[in-house]
Amino acid sequence: MMATIAHYNKIINGFVWGTPMLCLLVGTGVYLTFLLGLPQLRYFVLTFKEVFSKKKDVQQEAGDKSISSFAALATAMAATVGTGNIAGVATALHLGGPGALVWMLVSAIFGMCTKFAEVSLAVHFRQKDEHGDWRGGTMYILEHGAGQKWLAFLFALFAFLASFGIGAAVQANSTAEGLKMGFGLDELHCGIGLVILTALVIIGGLKSLSTVTTLLVPTMAVFYVIGSLIILFKNAAVLPDVIATAFHYAFNDPAETVKGALAGWCVKEAIRKGIARGVFSNEAGLGSAPMVHATANTNHPVRQGLYGIFEVFMDTLIICSMTALVVLSTGALTGNPELTGAQLSLKAFEMGLGEVAGKFVLSIGLALFAFTTILGWYWYGETAAVYIFGVGFKPIMKVLWLVLILLGAAGSRFLGAGSKEFLTVLWDMADTLNGLMAIPNLLGLLLLSGVMRKLVKDFDAKRRSGELKL
Questions:
Q1: Of 15, 143, 265, 330, which residue is least crowded by CB atoms under 10 Å?
Q2: Whole-prediction pTM value?
Q3: What is the DSSP string of 51-89?
Q4: How confident is the model over 37-47, as pLDDT tens digits?
Q5: Whole-angstrom Cα distance, residue 113 to residue 312?
Q6: Distance between CA 8 and CA 109 in Å, rounded?
Q7: Which of 338, 282, 326 is closest to 94 using CA atoms?
Q8: What are the extents of the domains in the chain?
């Protein structure tokens, strides 16, 4: 049964994450970038001012269940900054070579605009559910903006199903793996602990979830970045050569005589793996993050869109780049051709910080990134479930989520030898569903690009007139 599912999923996956789809993802970002007047560059300084300043001009009405713009950003980044920033980047370098880093950053630059548009439109077309919670995202954009309810339903279905794999089971497995790797903790104990911690957070709804992620996300990002910077400072002398090598391999196939070149490295793979890693990591174009940004307390859709720009910048241009440069500067990539994923990243951190400190930083980073992804993706799964089944489904969603967490963390105890196959199939299916999510989302962005352009013009006009004070 598992083998049959895996076979057909591989066929679909090859289509949804093939070259045409990656071109559509990046192409949409390129189109929106020029249509909207390069917002990721034009608003770059404004974005940082908005994210790190205290807003005094946005008042919250009594009974409003929205959360602050920064809390929405933290919750979105909780889901976005995950194991892909550690294991996924290392895998991209292993398969595509150092040039994958360059193409990952290129996709992120245009992805900043895609995420900017997604978030802005999600706020513009958001709705309140029967419990008074703000609900928004691609399904609401497609239904209320583009009038395509069938596409909205498909997106919600893909997001709902994908959440159990990419958001619950696989992340729980990564959290347990990180804690076992660093501290030797038992998977079952990790699973039970994760279920309890997650239950305590999600039972309180969005307010509770956003409060926890607002504390955890900045802490874990700073922790990981500091650990990476220590290694990069130690290897500062080789960084110019590392960067030059990355650019070289981004446009040139390594000859067999190039020292350290791995079989399969070529420009085509560098482009494909780099772009794919960028998209997987920052989720620009997938339509996931707008579901939480739509809950923000803001006085203009484009104002919240600025947080989308920052999200991609921090996720890919900072955190993913840190991982890539650590792997490349330590020589772990070419010195250990048999390693990939989390094991390659672990080797790089051990080489840079020493075996004990490197394992500590990497394992804590992996566990925190995975746990916060569980929290962030829960809101995406619940939002999709509410759209399909209504608010009455929320208790069932919570139970299903906790069951998948336990299976993901301690699957070997319940499923025996088949646990690894189960998780692999679940991850591959979630990966495919992520790609399927992107199709209706990108169609919605293209169909409503005119609306987005009007929102940007309105935002600029209100800033010039002083109506919006940023």
A1: 15
A2: 0.90
A3: HHS---S----TT---B-HHHHHHHHHHHHSSGGGTHHH
A4: 999 999 999 99
A5: 9
A6: 33
A7: 338
A8: 39-55+62-453
